[in-house]
Amino acid sequence: MIPTSFEALPLAAPLHRVLRELNYETPSPIQAQAIPLLLEGRDLLGCAQTGTGKTASFALPILHALSEKPKQVRPKCCRTLVLAPTRELAGQVGKSFSTYGQHIRFKQTLIYGGVGANPQISAMRGGVDVLVATPGRLLDLIEQRAVDLSGVEFFVLDEVDRMLDMGFLRDVKRIVSLIPANRQSLFFSATLAPNIVELANSILRNPARVSIAPETTTAERIDQQVCFLDRENKKPLLEQLLRDQSQATSGKLTIVFSRTKHGANKLAKSLCAAGFPADAIHGNKSQAQREKALERFKKGLTPVLVATDVAARGVDVKDVGLVVNFDLPNEPEAYVHRIGRTGRAGAEGRAVSFCAEDERDFYGKSKK
Ligand code: AMP
Question: CATH homologous superfamily of domain 222-366?
Answer without folding.
Answer: P-loop containing nucleotide triphosphate hydrolases (3.40.50.300)
